[in-house]
Amino acid sequence: LQLLGATAIEDKLQDGVPETIQLLKLGNIKVWVLTGDKQETAMNIGYACRLLTDDMEILEEKEELRALRALWSLPCVLSPKDKMLQTGEVRKEKKGWPWRWLCCDGTETSQDQAGLVEKAFVDLASSCQAVICCRVTPKQKALMVQLVKKHKKAVTLAIGDGANDVNMIKTADIGVGISGLEGLQAVQCSDYALAQFSFLQRLLLVHGRWNYLRICKFLRCFFYKTFAGLLTQVWFAFHSGFTAQVRDGWFLALYNIFYTAYPVLSVGLLEQDVSAKKSLEFPELYMVGQQDELFNYRVFGVTLLHGVGTSLISFYITLWAFEDHVGTKAVGDYESFSVTVALSALLSIVLDTQYWTVLSFVMVTASLLLFSSQIPRRIPTFLMSMENPGIVGLGAKPCPSAPFLSPLGVRALLADVPSPDLRMSLQKIHLKAKRDPEPSVELRSHIPRGSFCRRSSYAFSHQEGYAGLITRGDSLRARATPGTAPAVSPLCPTGTPAVSSLCPTGTPAVSPLCPAGTPAVLIPPQAGPTTAALLARAH
Amino acid sequence: MEDTTSFLPREEAKPSRCPDNSAFKQQRLPAWKPQLTIASVLSTFFLTGAFCLTVGVCLVLAANSVREIQIDYSDKCSDCSKLRENSSNWNKECHCSVNFTLKEDILGDVFMYYGLQNFYQNHRRYVMSRSDAQLLGRNVNIQRSYCAPFSTYRNGTPMAPCGAIANSMFNDTIDLFYNRNSSVIQVPLLKTGNSWWTDKNVKFRNPELYNLSSAFAGTARPPYWQKPVYLLDEEDERNNGYVNDDFIVWMRVSAFATFRNLYRRVRRVRHFAQGLPAGNYTFQISYNFPVTRFKGRKHVILSTVVWSGGSNPFLGIAYLVSGTAAILTGFVITGIHLKLRKKKTYFQKH
Q1: Which of B113, B75, B69 has the alpha carbon at shortest distance from B297?
Q2: Buried (b) or exposed (e) across A419-449, using 16+ Cβ within 10 A?
Q3: Integer CA distances (angstroms), A203 to A206, A492, B176, in order
Q4: B70: closest chain A residue by CA
Q5: Do B34 and A243 touch (CB under 8 A)?
Q6: Which pLDDT does position A514 carry in this prediction?
Q7: DSSP secondary structure, A207-266, as one string
Q8: Contact by Cβ (8 Å): B110, B148
């Protein structure tokens, strides 16, 4: 045999893919790869982008059949801490085969059975650290995503760059398209479009996390300031025969529009708890969003109570301070009282903003000034004040007098200062109380497994290859595999060819499976491993 | 070997949709990020606690230094109260005397207030029932204001001033007499200077005409009043009409059902240059304002004033409580911190 040459098609891995996948895994995001390549190629891609590591136990076809059978026989009892799955495992799957085996296992095919099989499959997959599915057709990619959504309470994200990923992108909760050399099909049907795969880490870990934080904080602050400000009306009703309001209608109408809208808005727009750099350094922070920690029923209840407490303090401290008040001029009148109460309610906009930009300061000051100028407090009075440019609508006595500001001081102390500090202390106590016992040091062996010690992203086929087919000139179309029973499960394509075509179908896509709430990422290793076809000419 | 096949321009064209690299658009605005470290938290709590304790102590001491005498005279003048229950007795005068004794001198400015209890000036319909335009002296159509039903009489004469607040103005007259040895001296009282400057000079104006009574021609007094508005104070032209201090003080409605309004101030002349000397005093009250129908009470109060207000110790106590709570919380947090701090472990080298 005289070697004439070799051709190769290289599809390099994008920059930053291994690091991105590392970060995603640290952020408790399960990463799956759904690729149309064959098994060795997909495995090599997995090693190249560090989805698989050498110390992982890889479940291949037979083992996973065994696992599935074991799980399937106990459909309802599935603890993710099964012994055999304790160490991180990677499961590989070849589409079509396991299902056929399960289906032919002498059981009757019914919808329930199909559902059980699916559930067992999803449970097994989600207890693995990473999943690579190879030989997946576009329709099956979408079906995989659907399976995850159906059986797992998880948010799925699909990212792909080719036309064969369109189905998957549209099925997932979040679809991300990568615009690239393969055209813009994926981009056009996606929710987010990126230029490179590595931008995904910023999308999720920085912007995704910040936006979750911002929305939760905005909601919390909005409810808090509404309760704190407007429940004072209710408390006043007890003292006025249930008729009057502390302030007239304009204040109530404008409270949420002018006086308190802007600081809350600035929290919702600009808040950051850690900088972008640190967010990328500590992907574990992402788990806060996965576990719904920042806004749930408990947080809302706490906010409600805090708002009620603040309003009680605002109102009653002012009431008791003004009662029977004597002074050199009239005090304790309706308008002074209402201004004091309103002002102390407005102090609730000094929220627990952690990231005080210039804009935040400006918003808070502007809101307080807007209120103090009392622009549309009462139209006739306003008009009067227009003609008499000495008063500020209220005809107020000098405001910053001691009896006026003192209630505000007490109220600020009781309501505002303790809350972040106490929260921090309570959190500390909580964490200390929940501390697990010190884990014993585990020694992990670093003995390399297997015989493939050198990994590369080039998938040289270690099998015989298809040279024989070429020289023989046989058709590559598969005949129908004999003896297959028709299967009901949607994942059991009938008549799946045993041998797929020479070229891998498109770029692989990844589907993630995650535990409740964890977004799953599907990535496309735009890495196509190179398929080397050795052209050989037989003598 | 030189590559002549392709040339790339040295400078790459900037992508057209790339966002600016400004601090705002890249979310890199300079910001103050307060960090809750144990030092800052503890110092906040302790400092605030100390500050509040100080302020609280000052307020309590100040409130305690206020001398106040409060007398409920609707009980003491029970025959006058009974007389006033019947509104047909409106033109009968009723006088009442209330005695009290000062054991010590009251030094400083002394203020006299009348207090009402269970009178809901904060009722919504009551608060709205006024016409600020009319009180500015303008010739307005008060039918379009909120004064109803106290806006015009049946024959069409408008009321000046209109509204329920003005109509229910407090009209008792209280005089203070000092029994010195055997003679009775009337304590000189100031009836002006009791209202806010902006009220007196800006918000309330008399209608402009050469003569006050002709300025109010064509209007009538409100039904509960005994005198028309331009006869409220015939001695002082600047205290007559709408700008009468008693009227202004009453129109500034109170927020509570139990309130007090400034009525007179002791004029510091002659015997009373230092304040009120010790001795026996008598209030002579011309009882006009009926309160028994709504189970209200009337008080007369004499009080001095300090920088922080009157004798209400609530604010001082509130500050003391807050300061104590803050310091206690500081100690608690310190305790928690010391207890739960990770003990440093020292590895011994073998």
Answers
A1: B75
A2: bbbeeebeebeeeeeeeeeeeeeeeeeeeee
A3: 6, 35, 80
A4: A324
A5: no
A6: 35
A7: IIHHHHHHHHHHHHHHHHHHHHHHHHHHHHHTTTTTT--SS-HHHHHHIIIIITHHHHHH
A8: no
H helix count then E strand count, chain B? 10, 12
What residues contact B167, with CB distance under 8 A and at least 6 apart?
B150, B159, B222, B223, B224, B225
Q: How far apart are CA A317 and CA A168, in angstroms?
A: 60
Q: CA-based angle A297:A301:A303, to the nearest 5?
A: 120
Cross-strand pairs, A333: B254
Give the DSSP letter string of B152-177. Answer: B-TTSPBBSS-SHHHHT----EEEEE
Structure letter (DSSP) for residue A394: S
Handedness of CA A520, A524, A525, A530 (dihedral sign): positive
Chain B residues whose beta carbon lies within 8 Å of the beta carbon of residue A312? none
Closest approach of chain A CAs to the CA of B2, in angstroms? Answer: 25
CA-nearest residue of chain B to A324?
A: B259
The angle at the Cα of B206, spanning B230 to B196, to the nearest 5 degrees, equals: 105
Question: Collapsing DSSP states into helix, strand and coil, what is residue A276?
Answer: helix
Which tens digit of pLDDT belongs to each residue from A27-71?
A: 888 888 888 877 778 888 888 888 877 777 777 666 666 666 666
> How many CB atoms sit inside 10 A of residue A168's CB?
30
Query: Which tokens belong to B49?
Result: 């606690």
Q: Measure the CA–CA gap between A521 and A523, rounded to whole angstroms.
A: 6
Which DSSP category does B25 fall into? T
- Name the residue among A321, A331, A432 with its Cβ closest to that of B314: A321
Q: Do A324 and B252 touch (CB under 8 A)?
A: no
The DSSP annotation for B273-339 comes to: SSEE-SEEEEEEEE-----GGGT-EEEEEEE--BTTBSS-THHHHHHHHHHHHHHHHHHHHHHHHHH
How many residues are listed for chain B in this entry? Answer: 350
Joined together, the tokens standing for residue A436 give: 């697990």
Pairing assessment for the beta strands B95-102 and B31-32 based on DSSP bridges: unpaired
Q: What share of chain B is helix, strand, coil (3-state, %, to 5)?
A: 35, 20, 45
d(CA A430, CA A425): 9
DSSP string, A305-326: HHHHHHHHHHHHHHHHHHTT--
Could you say which of A332, A355, A420 has the minimum Cβ distance to residue B36? A420
Give the C-alpha distances (Å, rounded to integers) separating B230 from A433, B200, B236, B326.
Answer: 77, 16, 11, 56
Q: Which two tokens stand for residue A277?
A: 């750099």
Question: Which residues, at least 6 apart from A62, have a Cβ–Cβ distance to it below 8 Å?
Answer: none
From first to last of its 539 residues, chain A has per-residue pLDDT tens of: 899 998 887 767 888 898 999 899 888 888 888 888 777 788 888 888 888 777 777 776 666 666 666 665 544 333 333 333 333 344 554 444 344 334 333 344 455 666 777 787 788 778 777 888 888 888 888 888 998 898 888 899 999 888 888 999 999 999 999 887 767 888 888 999 988 888 999 999 999 999 999 999 899 888 888 888 788 888 888 888 888 666 666 677 777 777 788 888 888 888 888 888 888 888 888 888 888 888 899 999 998 998 888 888 878 887 887 776 666 665 666 766 776 777 776 676 666 677 788 888 888 888 777 777 664 444 334 333 333 332 333 333 333 344 445 555 555 555 555 555 555 555 555 555 554 444 444 444 444 444 444 555 555 544 555 666 666 666 555 443 433 333 333 333 333 333 322 333 333 333 333 334 445 555 544 433 333 323 223 22
The pLDDT value given to residue B349: 53
Residues A538 and B10: their CA atoms lie apart, in Å, by 49
Q: For strand A89-94 and strand A519-522, is the pairing parallel, antiparallel, or unpaired? A: unpaired
Angle at the Cα of A340 from the Cα atoms of A336 and A341, rounded to 5 degrees:
120
Residues of chain B contacting A326 with CB distance shorter than 8 Å? 66, 68, 111, 113, 260, 262, 301, 303, 305, 309-311
